[in-house]
Amino acid sequence: MRSLLAVFGLFIALNSFAQQTLKEAPLNEDSLRLESRANLMGHLQILASDSFEGRCTATEGQKMAAAYIAEEMEKYGLQKVAVDSNGDLSWFQSWPFAKRFGDKKKYTSHSENVIGVLPATSPSDEYVVISAHYDHLGIMRDTIFNGADDNGTGSSSLLELIRLFSEKTPIREKNILFIFFSGEEKGLLGSAYYAENPVLPLSASVCDLNIDMVGRADSIHAADSNYVYVIGSNRISTKLDSLLQVANSQHHPMALDYTYNDPNDPQRLYERSDHYNFAKHGVPVAFFFSGLHPDYHKSTDDIEKINLDVLYWRMMLVYRLANQIMAYPEKL
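Below the sequence we write its predicted structure tokens.
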């Protein structure tokens, strides 16, 4: 009983703290929603277009997507932290790629994680990591698999979050490290390489908030799509999950579904996206996901089936959570 009361007490304290910080930066919710929806769709139309050929790891389509993401980072004044082969700062963390036996696709020898930092407004040595993978399956049997939901929605959310934090969050007490991983569909390869070769010390990473497939509703929630699956938020740090509860209570609360957070979950989704390579090193993580659907890993995963409203609200939950984490004075 005492542990339950302690958790409840922490929630009340964090909620009081949140209400104080929220008043410092009010948002025009209606205007913001319209603008963000348009931006999310704009990014989706580019990332999930045929011209990017399904963004398969170590292909020209993936590199075109990487270049587009880097242009957006440059546009909003992020800082380069990766280093290229000449020792110069770069948006790209290059990592070696070797194709699997029997794979007949045309690959290059390297793929790229795209990385940028939005610095804190006062000196900080802490980094809130927000991540998404931007690769997909590419071309198979002469058909392009555009991956609008997987993971065009996560990548588009991350791009819009870059704008929101740049323009709408004038006070940032911690740095934000944005990472777009490639190689997720090949076995979390890009994030595994990053975890072993971090551009900034993993010890400086406060947490990783990972976004993967957040634009649809699964059959379980067909009647009400105002939900999001949350995975891992209380496994390493219960404080992270408490801050999530506070963030979700601030505006347009969503149903937080912890079904896949069960350690006995047969789908083992905790281990199937890029946050897992942070969790293995003890970094607190929260994975946001809207579930599997009939178009998962099929050529029919196209932008016409994305629900922009729920995509926006799920993205905004990550935005509000990250703001809570940046203002939170203690270690998660």
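The two ends are 23 Å apart (CA to CA).
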